[in-house]
């Protein structure tokens, strides 16, 4: 009578022989690996989840996957918003969550070397003991991994002033699809030796290799007391003009967030605050550093000149209360229905026009699209709300118009969430067919057998392509 | 009797038919294209210099070069220090110096769109009228082009605080080897759509394509009066420790330059200043922005604590006088003999050890290596001096030891000058053979026929490779 292992696929048997119980085929693990936080899931459960605990585990898994032509989907905490880490039938999941060590912290060199599975927020708590921080601060930072942040090229609230992931990584250790380990980048803050493959890996959404370590560029914690400003405007367009006036005035706030009327009303309802006046939009701004107070004063004057009603505080608790309204956006949206969170980014001057486009699309499709924006850098998150569990076709058609409008205004499909599965059909439209094919050819250099996250990012193909 | 044009190679005849007198075969132009400022020249004059005046000129030139298998070397102002733009027999030079327009300046979006041939310093003068600047400031900025800065991924004095070229480019328009035009990157400050090919092109030294336009990320001119600090120390190691103490203290100077004793003595002699005390090394530091004075005071305290003798001023003329000593480094070196300017970069904490290594190599080879460092970011420029017109073998052997020492200390071959021809033999040592081959395969995706700057950067091949 055959032993149970023989009933498994040969690839699982080989993995188990090497990795033992780090190969997980429990129904709960397989089911969890089907979806991220985009509201989208794969067609069915994957083959298995490998819980890697070391670079050697990753290499061995990939060698077996490569030998057997088994597709591999790398996952962190599964907080992505574009479906890039969703794994389906026949795919192997490589979970990095157990590789979460901080290997080195160097306050003198302002760098840290970490494994990819550490949570961004957890790293920040460790770094704070040294007076340091890693600036990327996606809204998901308490639940998302550094490796996931690197895979998506994550941004966040603070990035207009302090940069995105691409500005904060000196090097990565990358395991290629065939199991070979490369050390990309450097420990020195400056370097131009060869091609910048570190930047190429950042935001590559699991298509080029598996990040097993990262050398991060740190900052010292900013001294001084932050000032927080809340300003309301009669509508989103006026608020967008107010934020543009702040940028034009030369101030550089740490945070500058815009909430349109629908967003503000939804959050007020969720938090049981008095409802805002109809149409009212809000800017929430924070200045920091030794000039926080002077910058806040300058910004207040600019916002009043732009027609805003302004509140300003240097009290930490009151500042947190004002920011909480912005931070409650995701639960407020969830309370409205099924949400497709979009992520277009436009030149800052196009922000008012983009809000006009969103209003036009709402009317054209008879839907609501509450929208928040990282106004300091022109990155908008329009939330397409529907009342069915699956995202209905009308939402996809409206999103299609939104993407085209953003590109027309000089913008881009995705500011910080990535392409994943959800936006791959629009990728060639932004890149052009020649660039789309060139990028896909670069993927093939890293992964000639095409086993890493196949179908993601470069799934849709331009007309006439042989992809 | 054949007409003179028939005596030319078919490729020149085809180029002239399309580009007329923009195809330059004057002996002076051909001779000038053989060398950059590295002190190194090619074996002989190239075929011709094409003075492109438009993207269409570049595309037509490349189509003809591609058809005929003619290698193409792209040149800006020829101020490179690694030989990347040196053109030799059989090669066609594509000069970008006549494409120097500023196409767009957007103060509201903090961006400019420029052609590649504009000089960095010229651009800054144009931007200053709008209260703006482009931060990259290589020492060559008055004579080097923005396109050349992009090709090398240039740095400069200000980059510890304000970033390098890679931090200051949103997108590039790139003509591929076969003449196709791609638009890489974006106008929005944030974006993660597809692979980051803009970063890949920055620092690629003419191997991936021809940059015909760039969308630059600007800053507003920093307000306030800068403060300048000069501090002398008994030796370079103490000065390096002083700079490390400044970084460790949390200050972020705009400029922090270290000159060792040989550099300082040479400059004093050139400028006819009183000779410094034997062994004396100097830090020259500038703080800027609204907190310049407070930061200068904090730094002064730190430097005195580290054993420095400190002068500080907020007078612009006096500040310029102090900085002039640093800025006179290149002519001072030229006055000593033939110079090979090197460019290693190490983690900041390794700066004192790197100075020890340089002293050791000086003794071992009986040579002098005056060294300056961008101490704020660990980037050293050791100047290997010799008295023969050609760089002698002993210098190359000493440089070889220097590179190995830098890599051993966690550093890199080149912080801001690039690999070019002069450092290609060490490239595989830093990257590892697997990464070296992967990078070269990426070059082949962009340029399968291998006509763009062949032999540069990836010239030396690892053992056993089929490059």
Automatic annotation (TrEMBL), chains A, B:
Coiled-coil residue windows: none
Cofactor(s) the protein requires to work: FAD
Stored InterPro entries: FAD-bd_oxidored_4_C, FAD-bd_PCMH, FAD-bd_PCMH-like_sf, FAD-bd_PCMH_sub2, FAD-linked_Oxase-like_C, FAD-linked_OxidoTrans_Type4, Oxid_FAD_bind_N, Vanillyl_alc_oxidase_C-sub2
Keyword annotations of the record: FAD, Flavoprotein, Oxidoreductase
Source organism, top-level taxon: Bacteria
Pfam families: FAD-oxidase_C, FAD_binding_4
Segments forming domain FAD-binding PCMH-type: 42-221
Keyword Oxidoreductase: yes
Name the record gives this protein: FAD-linked oxidase C-terminal domain-containing protein
Natural source organism: Microbacterium panaciterrae
Species lineage: Bacteria, Bacillati, Actinomycetota, Actinomycetes, Micrococcales
